[in-house]
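Input/output pair, single chain:
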Amino acid sequence: MGTLRLEGLTRRYGPATVVDGVDLDVQQGELVALLGPSGCGKTTTLRMVAGFVEPSAGRVLIAGKDVSHAPPHARDTGMVFQSYALFPHMSVAQNVGFGLEMRKVGRAEREARVVEALRLVRLEGLAERLPRQLSGGQQQRVALARALVVNPAVFLLDEPLSNLDAKLRAEVRVEIRTLQQRLGLTTLFVTHDQEEALTMADRLVVMEKGRVRQVGTAEELYERPADLFVANFIGRVNVLHGQVAGRGQFRATDGTTLPCPREAAPGLRGALCLRPEKLRFNPGLASGVPARLERSVYLGGATEYHFTLAGTAVMALRETPPAGDRLRALAPGDAVTLDWLGEDARLLPDAAA
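Output:
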């Protein structure tokens, strides 16, 4: 059994089911991200684990112990809130030590553990400052130290980076991941940011409307999405509708024949999904599928190319070609041919079940 186990976890508010039968195992030392759009139930799930929301059904087990109805302080968890929730009238040291004081830890041990927690988050010299005297990044580290100082069995993070600017967010997520791995913390992390989830988590849990759509590693969800919702939510994807016309051939709704996986059964209807980096293209109308360039977007080291293919807008991503390359001369309205390996596409049901 994992350090954290959710069994049929459900939360209802009147007739509305916000979290619907979530099952999940988080293993010792693993960081699992709950990912999904606003309102999908990820934060409610986290708050049920923390004890701030009572489950309508199901169980929360920590180290094999059912804590579904235990108060937050009896759950052996440490939580970092989106707003940090620091006490403005308390110093950094007092904020960090608050949880220990509530647990009746003696003063000498409390002070030693606060010093160690501040060392872990690199705030040793700021113990006597008030929260208003700190930067956003420093406040976030105080919140981390406060959660870590109680030595929790399960570490809970509720979008802890959302109040930081983009550059600081990238730096702090590396710090959190490094600290989590070094301390072997079993961690449940809520975010709506795909990049955060992809770069930080051992596994991702994609949620929609209170239900789990798919659980897996970043590579599994990106390369082998279970349905169109996951394919569209994790990264960017081109989607063309139609049916399999023959071995390795997919006929789009406008009649254009496109490469598809050879094992796909003829007659099968669905959506052909293809990641932008899998698309190959050349100017002119040689072999391949005819398309027309609508626009290109220069991103520095990479360039996005937007085409119309089989009556559908599709996007290709590739390294920015060097000066003098004929692709640099492509202009809106130019004809090109697109091609890809059939096995690089994935055939999914037209609508998520």
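Helices lie at 42-50, 92-102, 107-120, 136-148, 166-183, 194-200, 218-223, 228-233. The radius of gyration is 25 Å.
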